[in-house]
Amino acid sequence: METPIKREATCEQELAAIRDSLEILGGKWKLRIMRYLNNHIDEKNTFKKIQREVEGISAKMLSKELRELEINLLVTRTVMETRPVTVNYAMTEYGLSVFPVTETLVDWGLNHREKIK
Amino acid sequence: METPIKREATCEQELAAIRDSLEILGGKWKLRIMRYLNNHIDEKNTFKKIQREVEGISAKMLSKELRELEINLLVTRTVMETRPVTVNYAMTEYGLSVFPVTETLVDWGLNHREKIK
DNA sequence: GTTATCGGTTAACTAATGGTTACCGGTTAC
DNA sequence: GTAACCGGTAACCATTAGTTAACCGATAAC
User: Fold this and answer.
1) For labelling alongside B25, which of B18, B32, B78, B103 has CA 20 to 30 A away?
2) CB B1 within 8 A of CB A101
3) Contact at CB, B32 and A55, closer than 8 angstroms
């Protein structure tokens, strides 16, 4: 993971940065998949395993989301010569940079559940 | 803003927390609106002013998003007895808790723009 | 009287998201 | 032989998200 660099930005630049982030990480599933991979970084993460653990995602969506994450260099896809053939998905070094984002969302979500209880 | 509380959660609970967060903060506009309000916390933020500064949002979307943020107690809506009548939107105390989320997204977006350059 | 601003609403529309079902070839376990 | 698991894809459909344009009453400026 990289050293966080403090930046200065105008409000306009900040809003544009949020837009950029959401273009790549937005939607219902991508951050959940990234968090799952982050939590299982030393394991083999096959398609089916991810699908079982990211609750509710369909094969179609998982396939699409993983492809998009791969295009943006956040995830790698490796076909393993096992029998039957399995496919391993893993976070890239760059993918690790998403961790703080998922972390704040986890914190907020847990806190919110407490709050509305 | 509240003191961050360290929590322990299983991966499953973490993914559920992300789902919860995205249900309330997800979509194209909510986090941008929240960031804008956070950056202008001591000012009067009228409907039109927000619409001008959150670039690209239509009146319909802004109206809808503000209503949802209000329902979730993140924003207040106050009709001001000016002439013409203006409406002021402001972050609640609870709304401030969203700051870390927007902060990590701003950082990630700025960093990403550097990276792909 | 005309135009503009304020804070929206409404209707009509398109684009994006996401779900469901069925199916593919190959492999293994029974 | 049959069923199940692996990693998907294809077709179809429904829902949601989001856009555009027109319009509202009230007020104010010219």
Assistant:
1) B78
2) no
3) no
Residue A8 lies in a domain: no
Domain that holds residue A110: 30-116
pLDDT of B5 > 80? The answer is: no
Query: Distance of CA A112 to CAs A65, B52, B72, Å?
Result: 27, 30, 10
Residue-wise pLDDT for B8-64, tens only, equals 789 999 999 999 999 999 999 999 999 999 999 999 999 999 999 999 999 999 999
> How far apart are the C-alpha atoms of A64 and A70, rounded to whole Å?
10
pLDDT over 70 at A3, yes or no:
no
Kindly state whether residue A20 falls inside one of the protein's structural domains: no
Q: What percent of chain A has pLDDT over 90?
A: 84
A63 touches strand C (CB under 7 A): no
DSSP B58-100: -HHHHHHHHHHHHHTTSEEEEEE--SS-EEEEEE-TGGGGGHH
CB neighbourhood size of A46 (10 A): 15
Ramachandran quadrant class, A53 (left: phi over 0; alpha: psi -120 to 50; beta: rest) = alpha
Domain with A82 in it: what CATH number?
1.10.10.10
Phi, psi of A75 (to 5 degrees): -145, 145
- Is residue B16, in this structure, part of any structural domain at all? no
Size of interface A-B (CB pairs under 8 A): 145
Both structure tokens of B22:
């995205």
- Between residues 65 and 84 of chain A, which touch chain B (CB distance below 8 Å)? none
Q: Which two tokens stand for residue A39?
A: 């939590």
